[in-house]
Amino acid sequence: MSSHSNIIKASCADIPALEGKPLAYIGVGSNLGAGDADPQRTLEQAFVALATLSALPIAVSSLWETEPIDCPPGSPLFINAVVALAPRLSHPRDLLEELQRIEQEFGRLRLGERNAPRSLDLDLLSYADVLWEDEILTLPHPRLQQRAFVVFPLLEVAPEYRIPGTSSRLSELTYSLVGQGVRKLRNNA
Questions:
Q1: Is residue 58 part of a domain?
Q2: Which of 69, 74, 86, 142 sits a CA distance of 20 to 30 A from 162?
Q3: Could you read off the pLDDT of 20-76 as tens digits, one per residue?
Q4: Could you tell me if residue 1 is inside a domain?
Q5: Higher pLDDT, 189 or 61
Q6: Which residues, including other chains, have CB under 8 Å from residue 159's CB and lie 6 or more apart?
C-alpha cells in the first residue's frame, strides 16, 4: 500500500468501495520525468494528483518499463501504469480537462511533435461504459487494445475489464501483444 491513504497499489477487486461503481481508467506514462524527478518518481507524484479526482481510493497498477513506440529516434524508455478511479466529475470531457491540467502542472509541453518525449502523459482510456467520439475525445481510447503498455497494467487493476461497446475482454489480447517490449519494473505491493 502507498503512503497516501487514497492510493492503493492493487486490483479494483481489492478495494471494496470500488465494486460496482462506474470507473474511469487512466493510462499514466513518463519518459523524461518532471522537474528534478525521474519518470518513476513522476508517476508516484501523478498518482497523488489523480487521487484528488476520485470520490474513492484509486487502484494503481505496477510500474512497467516500455520501449518507445512511434516516437522520434533516441527517445528514452517510458515508465507506464494504469489508474482506476471513481470520477468526481460527471462528464468525461471535464475529466479530460483535469488530466490535461495535471499534465501542464508536471511540465508537459505540447509542441506539435507527435509522440515526443514527455514529462507526463495522462490518457483517458475509458469512462464507465461511455462511448464517445468528437474532435477532442474518443472513448474508449482508440488504441487501448493495441498497446501492451496499456493492456498489461490495465489487466492488473481490472482483470475482468471488457472494452466498452464490445464483448472483448482485454485478457484475450495478451498473446498478440507479448512482443511489444514491456517489462514489469515492480509489483504493485
A1: yes
A2: 69
A3: 788 999 999 999 888 888 999 999 999 999 999 999 999 999 999 988 777 777 788
A4: no
A5: 61
A6: 11, 13, 171
Residue 188 has pLDDT above 60, yes or no: no
What pLDDT, on a 0 to 100 scale, did the predictor assign at position 44? 94
Q: Would you say residue 2 lies in a domain?
A: no
Angstrom distance (rounded) from CA 139 to CA 126: 6
Catalytic residue among 118, 129, 162, 169: 118
Give residue 60's pLDDT. Answer: 96
Residue of 94, 101, 123, 143 marked active site: 123
> Is 123 considered catalytic here?
yes
Q: In degrees, to the nearest 5, what angle opens at C-alpha 188 toward C-alphas 182 and 189? A: 145
Q: Computed over its alpha carbons, how large is the radius of gyration of the chain? A: 15
Q: Is the pLDDT of residue 85 over 90?
A: yes
Q: CA-CA distance, 18 to 86, in Å (whole number)?
A: 7
Per annotation, catalytic residue among 41, 101, 121, 186 = 121
Phi, psi dihedral angles at 168 (to 5 degrees): -75, 135
**Domain residues for 41?**
7-186
Please tell me the total count of domains within the chain: 1
Check residue 2 and give its pLDDT: 45
Catalytic residue flag (residue 101): no
Q: CATH number for the domain including 92?
A: 3.30.70.560
Active site residue 121: yes
* Residue 175 within a domain: yes
Q: What residue has cell string 488504441? A: 143
